[in-house]
Design a protein that fits this description.
There is one protein chain. Strands 1, 2, 3, 4, 5, 6, 7 and 8 form an 8-stranded mixed β-sheet that branches. The chain is α+β, with helices and mostly antiparallel strands. Helix content is 17%, strand content 35%. It has a single domain, classed as Nucleoside Triphosphate Pyrophosphohydrolase. The chain is globular and about 40 Å long. Strand 6 and strand 7 form a beta hairpin. The chain is built from 2 helices and 8 strands.
């Protein structure tokens, strides 16, 4: 069995809204929505990876807050961990810089209006419960 690789996802919150990112690549994922994030590199903590990925993917400065309970299997050997996060005051507005073609802030009653990637659904359900978005 190979060593697992952690992928971090950001439940980026602003005034009760959750940021969703629509994939533009690879083709099999294009058009589906996910929590932004990416792989934790060797020697990096998940929190540092999350901050780095948000900077690289969305051009924002943010901070990781709390790990969402649970860990979700992706394609072997990857597992998903999700952290709540918030933008630093004065950070630029998030914009899709790589792998995404649209970002959307979802109000509590809109969280299930997008077609989430199957692998993100359990994590989004946990985030929704944590922040009172319902399931």
């Amino acid at each position: 069995m190979s060593e697992r690789i952690v992928v971090v996802g950001a439940a980026l919150l602003d005034a009760g809204r959750l940021l969703a990112a629509r994939r533009s690549a690879p083709p099999e994922l294009a058009g589906r929505w996910e929590l932004p994030g990416g792989k934790v590199e060797p020697g990096e903590t998940p929190e540092h990876a999350l901050v780095r990925e948000l900077r690289e993917e969305l051009g924002v400065e943010a901070e990781a807050l709390t790990r969402v309970p649970g860990e979700w299997p992706l394609r072997e050997p990857y597992v998903l961990q999700v952290w709540t996060a918030r933008l630093h005051p004065g950070s630029p507005t998030p914009k899709p810089l790589q792998d995404h073609d649209e970002l959307r802030w979802l109000a509590p009653d809109e969280i299930w209006h997008v077609n989430w990637l199957d692998q993100d659904v359990p994590a989004v359900r946990e985030v929704a419960a944590l922040v009172g978005h319902g399931a």
